[in-house]
Structures are given as structure tokens and as C-alpha cells.
Amino acid sequence: MHEQTLAIHAGYEKDTQGTMAVPIYQSTAYQFRDSEHAANLFALKELGNIYTRLMNPTTDVFEKRFAALEGGVAAIGTASGMAAIFYTIANIAEAGDNIVVASQVYGGTNTLATHTIKRFGIEARFFDVNDLSTLEPLIDEKTKLILFESLTNPSIDVADIEAIAEIANEHGILSCVDNTVATPVLCKPLSYGIDLVVHSTSKYTTGQGLALGGIIVERDNLVEKIKGNSRYYHFNEPDASYHGLVYVDVPLPIFTLRVRLALLRDLGGAPSPFNSWLHIQGLETLPLRMRQHSASALAIAEFLESHPKVKKVNYPGLKSSPHYDLAQRYFKEGMASGLLSFEVESKEAAQRIADSTEIFSVVVNIGDSKSIITHPASTTHQQLNKEELEAAGVPEGLIRLSVGLEDTQDLIEDLKRALAKI
Predict the structure, then answer these.
(1) How many CA atoms within 13 Å lie on the side-chain side of 343?
(2) Cis geometry, peptide bond prior to residue 154 (ω within 30 degrees of 0)
(3) Which tens digits make up the pLDDT trace of 225-280?
(4) Domains and CATH numbers, the chain
(5) Which residues of 96-124 are buried (b: 16+ CB within 10 A; e: fewer)?
(6) CB distance 195 to 176 below 8 Å
(7) How far is CA 59 from CA 80, 99, 270, in A?
């Protein structure tokens, strides 16, 4: 089926009531047929609902639908996008290990990698997504993951997905793409050799800023890369916390299975059924919305590129962009999503523009139906010093726009008025 059909129907078999809309199964727990049924579920002899911290029928539809859109074999929902990234790392790395992360990532991902996981004994090493010669020298026998974004936030760079996947595969290392900005509608990293995809579903998936959520999607046959791979010994040896289960011997997608059985069980960052239901509603219109977001963003980028007070515009849909060719290669019909950034002379000028808009709201979010303007250096990337900001592609005069679904000309006029005030 095509993605618009998958977005509306995948993963849902109508319940006994024949409801057209996916129900909200707002329940913490589930009744077992008898004690034997309960024992079989816990032993994985049967599959079914045990407790909503582990699984839920509404969330199950969301996971299956999202996996279908990404072209993956399985997915697991989390309470937020940051939970999805943390669980991806925690599922494969331990004290003494390292992960390799692109410098050009969302500020929260940078902070997680630089500071928080360091306290778990996991080192983060950073490479330049625009210069892949910086990647391979960082890899050693303790490297467990290569993490990057398909369309970076807020520097708006496009990664060479296949080239990074090739390096990861040469070394037997798992690769993971944060595909939040591009969404599975515009880009499908698993089809280019990537092992895992993560999303903050709080963004374009819900589409109206209504619900927090995250998701991890696993490619088909990932077990082939993990089985017998000494980097991931804990998938190949009995898990003492789950009655000696050996994950590579289970006939199920093993990466998401271990997140469910170990990390959601022990750390508890599960999505609420209601939020999963909101994400399902968002998925139904995601293909249509991404087309409009992309069209409006391109028109605004072209306007900004011609404005005398704008030093630089970052949007891979522009033919002048150094990332234009990669966007044409990896993104559906060259559509480049609704996120763009532009640079003005100073931090003060950037903040004044943000404060002067009337339709664009000063908000630290993206992917909303309502347009958003952000000054990253003073908000999402505030923890970085000037040199670190430059390395992350976030100069002090950078403004990020998340272009919504308002009339495109109204948005251009709003920016025109704001730019006139500097």
C-alpha cells in the first residue's frame, strides 16, 4: 500500500464493536484468562497485554502504523523523543563504551550525549556530518552506536545517509537516524541501510503541539548484524533479569523487544494511551501536511534569500543550498520539510526579529500547524559556548523557523515587517 493509505489504516483491525476510529484503551492493566495464561505471557510463550508500562492496544496500533510508514519491522513508543534516544543508547551501551554522534544535532541530544550519559560511564564522540572523514577515526572496539539526524535541527544540514550506513556496516556498529524533521513521509533511512530510526512524535507526527511522545523503529533482519557480534554480547548471552532469555534466539524483532522487556519495564518511560491516540490522529494527515509545510517553507526561504538584511539561509530545497543534491537524493520529490533557519548580523538583531513577529510565535517546538520562531543560541542551545555553537552550526545570529499551515503570503509579510525593524 502507498503511504497515505498506510497512514490511515495500517496496524488496526477493527475491534468487536466495529469502531472505525481506533479506541483509546485507557487501562493500566489487563485481565488474564487464568494463571496459566498469565504465566505464558510473562514467559513469551504467548503474546498479549500484560501492563500498560509494557504495552497497550492503542499504543500497539500507533507502533505498527509508524513502523509501516518507516518501512521497519517493528517499533516501540516512548514517553518523549528524548526517551526514545536515551533508550536507544541504553539498550546497547554500558559503562566503558562510547557512541559517535554528529555535532549537528538538536540541543537536547547534544546535552544528553555530552553530559548526562557521561555519568553512566558512556563517552560521546562527535563528528562533522558535513565532513565524514571525521567519523571513522573516532571508532574503536568499544563503539556501540553512530547517531545523527537526517535533516539537522537547527543547522538544516542533510546527512549522506548511505555513506554513514556504509561506515557503520564496515565496523559492525549499529546506526541510528533521528528522522523527526524529515518524517517518514519525506525520508526513509532504513531503505538506505540504517539500522534504527528514532522520532520525537511530539513534532510533525501529532502536528498540533498536543502530545509528547517518541518512537524507535527497527529494520527487518537486524538480528543478523547483532548475532555473534561481540559488541552486543548482552543480546547473545542469557539475560539473568528475564529468566535466561537469549534475545538473538527469539523469533521477534530483538532490539525493540529488549527495550520493552528491560528498559520500559525498569525505567518506565512509556507513552500514555491517550497520547498514542493523538499521534494516530496526526499520522492520518501527515502526508498531506508535509507537502504543505515543505511548499510554504521553500517560498519563505526564497524570500529570505533575496532580503538584504539576511546573511544566509539554510534550507536544502533551495537550489543554492550545498545540501540541495542530497535533499533531491534522499527526500521524496526533493521536499525538505517545514524547518529552515537564517542568519542575521547579531544576536540582538535575531532576538529583535523574533520579538517583532505577529503570526510566528516565540516557542521552542517544531512541526506545529502554527508557525514558530526560535532563537536557538539563547534557548535550545543556550548551554553551548560561542565555539561550541559554531561547531554545531548555530551562530549567535541564527533564527530558526518552523513553518506552519497558515497562508504562505501572510507569513512572508510577517517576516518582512519584523526584518524592517532591524
Answers:
(1) 16
(2) yes
(3) 999 999 999 999 999 999 899 999 999 999 999 999 999 999 999 999 999 999 99
(4) 3-274 (3.40.640.10), 288-419 (3.90.1150.10)
(5) ebbbbbbbbbbbbbbbbbbeebeeeebbb
(6) yes
(7) 13, 29, 10
